[in-house]
Each structure stands twice: as structure tokens, then as C-alpha cells.
Specification:
The protein is mainly alpha-helical. The protein is built from 4 helices and 2 strands. It has one domain. α2 runs antiparallel to α3. The chain is globular and about 25 Å long. The chain starts with a helix and ends with a helix. The model has no long low-confidence stretch (mean pLDDT 95).
Length: 60
Amino acid sequence: MEVDPIEVQRHLGGVEYPVKKDELIAAADRNDAPQAVVEALQALDQEEFDGPDEVQAALG
């Protein structure tokens, strides 16, 4: 699922890295992310991320 990288990062504001996938999803929910962003994060295989660039790379 392809999502806009700017949209993803906007809804991950306040995240401190490294971060676990579940924490990314929770942050997106707190920041009122669109369902497409939440679903894209839920679909990630990776369980921990060292920074926003790694999140974007995992999202494709």
C-alpha cells in the first residue's frame, strides 16, 4: 500500500526513535492519521525502527 511520505511523517510527530511498530501505530492514532496511514503501518513486517528514514524505506 502506497501512502504519501509527508502525510506519514506529519502523523508521526513526537515519536522518539528507536521505536517499536506498535508505538508508531499508537502515535499515528493519537495524531489523527488517516486510516490508510494506520493500515500501512500495521502492514509493516519490521518490528522496530531507528528513524523516520527507516520507516519510509519499510513503507516503500
